[in-house]
Amino acid sequence: MKPQRQRENREKIWLALEIGNSRLHWALFLGETLYSAWDTDYLPESVIQHLAEYQTLDDLLEKIFLPSQQAESLTKTLPLCPLLLASVVPSQTAIWQTYPNTCVITLDQIPLTGVYPTLGIDRALALWGAGKAWGFPMLVIDAGTALTFTAADANQCLLGGAILPGLGLQFATLGQKTGQLPLVEMHNIASLVPRFGLNTTEAIQSGVIYTLIAGIKDFIEAWWHLCPDGKIAIKGGDRTLFLNYLQALYPEIAARLIMESNLIFWGMREIVINGG
Fold first, then answer.
1. Annotated binding site for ATP
2. Residue 276 lies in a domain
């Protein structure tokens, strides 16, 4: 790597970490450009406490499981870089703050108006990132551990939203909190199931999936009634499943959805580059 390019990278490179309810979500940025994004399981506290001992970014990225071939040409010999952190898990936030040069994003850094104090930082950042990327009014659907809806109007004012258990959580609850119902595996439901199941597993799949899709459709229609020109972005681990289901049942709705997994990182980028 040439010295000039190396100096530029030292100035511009930064890491983003979203601590979700189930996993860690990472992004490596070169200035405004998202160079790579990946997910990992939670790291043991002992590992996190030793991250500051690494001397180069390449060493750090290898420890947090970014495939070395993705980072080697960019990060070789580069020093540890700033870490921008957004977390919905307070216990994990406290642990990661031991990493040097960490900046924890808070709600007051996001220029949405009308925000209430307990709004999740993940929801706020995703909404801000989507709105800045595609314009307001914006509704963000997060199909993760929880299924959430979060909306802002054309004036970038929070309109509110909703939270309910996501697909996997609903299946897990039925399997764990009932005496005889089986635990339904997510990998068995890539395509839309019959509406009327002929066994218990099919009945659970039908009940959960069709009810969730009906709820998503209802929220989308209510959103367009409120903001006819409003845009909709969908993120989260189950986003592809839900989009497939919507394409099968309501293709006119599916065609208008923006599917983007990195909305929170777009919001974090706005904070870093533009201060909001």
1. 18-25, 145
2. no
Catalytic residue among 39, 59, 122, 229: 122
Residue ranges at the known binding site: 18-25, 116, 120-123, 142, 145, 200
Verify that 65 and 115 share a domain, yes or no: no
Q: Whole-model pTM above 0.70?
A: yes
Quick one: angle between helices 167-177 and 200-226, nearest 10? 140
Question: Could you tell me if 130 and 25 lie in one domain?
Answer: no
- 230 is a domain residue: yes
The answer to whether residue 274 is domain-embedded is no
Same structural domain, 124 and 51: no
Q: Does residue 122 carry a catalytic annotation?
A: yes
Q: Is the pLDDT of residue 201 over 70?
A: yes
Annotated binding site for substrate: 116, 120-123, 200
Kindly state whether residues 100 and 119 are assigned to the same domain: no
Which value, to the nearest 10 degrees, does the dihedral of the CA atoms of residues 220, 222, 223, 227 take? Answer: 140
Count of alpha carbons within 13 angstroms of residue 229, beta-carbon side: 7
- What type of residue is 212? L
Is residue 93 domain-shared with residue 117, that is, in the same domain?
Answer: no
Kindly report the backbone phi and psi dihedral angles of residue 268, in degrees, each rounded to the nearest multiple of 5, phi listed first.
-65, -35
Which of the residue ranges 56-65, 146-155, 184-193, 194-203 has the most confident prediction, judged by mean pLDDT?
A: 146-155
Amino acid at 91: S
In sequence order, what E strands does the chain have? Answer: 13-19, 24-30, 33-40, 83-87, 102-104, 138-143, 146-152, 158-165, 231-235, 257-259
Examine the domain organization and report whether 258 and 175 are in the same domain. yes
